[in-house]
Write a structure and sequence with these properties.
372 residues, alpha/beta, Aspartate Aminotransferase, domain 2, Aspartate Aminotransferase, domain 1, 2 domains, eight-stranded mixed β-sheet, 37% helix, binds pyridoxal-5'-phosphate
Length: 372
């Protein structure tokens, strides 16, 4: 019988209480300086972020959804342009495209739940201008064939790297494959803040300058309004807090990969389960495990059983991949994604979890499949 333990899917209060003293002192210091909007704390965090990801520019924005929109706009998206994205993503990816007056077109995902590059070609029309791969669950998609296809069909890649800070593919980090990319600092993300936050990265000087102006009402470095823009600045206090958390980010990744390895060993061999590729499955990739997304027989019963034993789980996107949101009527098809969503489930995976928490999830899952 598994022990009596509570493993919430994500413990939001603990995100703060586990480091309350350090966070309070960072915030107090910034607030006492009156440094609320676009101050040195933001600039310092942007520089550290760009260095870590391995790109020339990082521009803090209010959230990743705005970041994707600004990245597309800075890369020259025009109304009516078609942008291809996987259906297995948050509606935000499609929403950012729609907000530019462009047309999102979804394609399918493969067995590892990442965009299935072989389904892209058939979705390309004379209006297709961009590919927006989603580096889902802390993993990088198959970028070699995608880069080849993009070059052959003259398409610009803008990456949705919301879930993949620090993930890599063949030695290159998520966020460095596209002309521009965006990351999310939503509280439950790998690097989370205490509200909303995001970052656009790029090697392209002109794109960086455009995003920098557009996130601040279209203002030039001299403070003159030179174009239309938004108010989408990353708050300075959030930037200071993020920079503080970022200093131990390598440890965060190590911890998550350790937990994934534990799940991989503890859950392997259960007939009704399909596990995500483990941390050592592919020498070409470093996964950072934003999520641990399994597929399971009788998924809804499993979810309920885990809940009864104190384990919080989540079906990503509330069970609605983009093509399944009837009200939005997004173009494209994703039959394999439909199948994935009959079986997929996120088990708890975050930096606040202990090995004992993961062992509890494993024990309850084993009991479920052993008993039936
Ligand atoms: C894949 C993906 N894209 C985009 C977003 C949007 O990020 P944000 O909430 O920072 O706008 C998220 C966050 O939930 C996400 O997971």
């Amino acid at each position: 019988m598994p022990e009596n333990r509570r493993v919430p899917f994500f413990d939001y209060p603990r995100l703060f209480s586990s480091q309350q003293d350090a966070l309070t002192s960072v915030m107090t210091e910034v607030l006492s300086r009156g440094a609320y909007i676009m101050q040195k704390d933001l600039r310092e965090f942007e520089s550290a972020f760009a260095r870590f990801v391995g790109c020339r520019h990082a521009v803090g924005v209010a959230n990743c959804t705005d970041g994707l929109q600004l990245a597309l706009m800075a890369c020259g998206v025009a109304p009516g342009d078609e942008v291809i994205l996987p259906s297995h993503t948050f509606v935000a990816t499609a929403g950012a495209i729609n907000a530019c007056g462009a047309v999102p077109v979804v394609v399918d995902s493969g067995p590892d739940h990442m965009i299935d590059v072989s389904t892209i070609e058939a979705a390309i029309t004379e209006k297709t201008r961009f590919l927006m791969p989603v580096q889902l669950n802390g993993r990088v998609a198959d970028m070699d064939p995608m880069l080849k296809l993009a070059a052959a069909r003259n398409l610009t890649i803008v990456e949705d790297a919301a879930q993949a800070l620090g993930a890599s593919y063949k030695g290159k980090q998520a966020g460095t494959f596209g002309r521009a990319s965006a990351f999310s600092f939503y509280p439950a993300k790998l690097l989370g803040c205490f509200g909303d936050g995001g970052m656009v990265v790029t090697d392209d000087e002109a794109v960086a300058a455009q995003v920098t102006a557009m996130r601040d009402h279209g203002r030039s470095p001299e403070g003159r309004i030179t174009q239309w823009g938004l108010n989408s600045r990353l708050d300075n206090v959030q930037a200071a807090v993020l920079h503080h958390q970022f200093r131990s980010y390598e440890k965060t990744i190590e911890h998550r990969r350790g937990l994934a390895q534990r799940y991989d060993e503890g859950l392997s061999g259960i007939g009704g389960l399909v596990l995500p590729p483990g941390p050592a499955a592919d020498p070409e990739r470093i996964d950072v495990f934003q999520n641990y997304e399994i597929e399971g027989d009788r998924r809804d019963e499993l979810k309920e059983f885990l809940g009864e034993h104190g384990v919080g789980t989540l079906i990503q996107w509330g069970g609605q991949p983009v093509h399944a949101i009837k009200e939005l009527a997004v173009r494209g098809d994703a039959p394999n994604t439909t199948k994935i969503f009959e079986r997929c489930l996120l088990l708890p995976m975050n930096q606040l979890l202990s090995e004992a928490d993961v062992d509890h999830v494993i024990a309850v899952t084993r009991e479920f499949y052993d008993a039936r």
